[in-house]
Design brief:
By secondary structure, the chain is of the alpha+beta class. Helices cover 37% and strands 22% of the residues. It has five helices and nine strands; from the N terminus they run H-E-E-E-H-H-E-E-E-E-E-E-H-H. The protein has helices at residues 19-58, 89-98, 110-119, 166-175, 180-183, and strands spanning 62-67, 70-79, 83-86, 120-122, 129-131, 141-144, 149-157, 159-160, 163-164. The protein is elongated and about 75 Å long.
């Protein structure tokens, strides 16, 4: 048996895990992730539902999240954009046919439709839509006002000069205990405390 000192020195080489161990670690990670998603998912979704409700009630579309005056990030209600669309396909098809802007399959040429929708304007106070270049009425096209909630909310971490800082601000606040009053109801988010056996 060798008495070389190097026998007692642990190698810095990473130990290659067996496929079984890799699979076990993967399964454990998946189980933890699924458990956390189940437990924490409603807390992630809660601001979204509240934001959508407030938008419907009073039009509030943004919420800047701060901790002790430092911005963490922002929720923004995604809204539909005002646009024109073909409301009556038959009317619009007849209009396109008169101008030779139809394909053989008897459908409006996509380029013509796109051009008409782009050039479309509405007579204020009416449903009449016209071509802003020629002034002629555009049958079969209607104006769809924007500003309605799409049903989704976007979260954006605060950035400074293009560098994300909001996550760090939030994690620092959590580690300092400044968010404990919010986290007591969600034990999964609370930092682990040493057990009596380890003290």
């Amino acid at each position: 048996m060798s008495n070389d000192a190097s026998d007692n020195v642990q190698s810095d080489e990473p130990v290659e895990l067996s496929l079984q161990d890799i699979g076990l670690r993967g399964a454990l990670t998946r189980a933890i992730k699924e458990h956390q998603l189940k437990e924490l998912g409603p807390h992630v979704e809660a601001p979204l539902q509240r934001m959508l409700a407030l938008f419907q009630e009073g039009g509030q579309s943004d919420l800047v999240v701060q901790i002790d005056g430092e911005t963490v990030g922002k929720y923004k209600v995604n809204q539909t954009r005002a646009h024109f669309e073909v409301a009556d396909a038959d009317e619009f098809l007849a209009f396109a046919e008169e101008r030779g802007e139809v394909d053989i399959v008897i459908t409006v040429k996509p380029s013509f439709k796109a051009a008409m929708l782009q050039r479309a304007r509405r007579v204020p106070g009416s449903d009449t839509v016209f071509d802003s270049e020629t002034g002629e009425e555009l049958p079969g096209i209607r104006f769809v006002p924007g500003g309605r909630a799409t049903g989704t909310v976007t979260w954006t971490w605060e950035k400074h000069q293009g560098v994300e800082i909001g996550r760090e601000v939030l994690m620092r606040a959590a580690q300092d205990g400044r968010l404990d009053h919010l986290l007591h109801a969600v034990p999964e988010l609370m930092p682990a405390t040493p057990s009596a056996d380890t003290e």
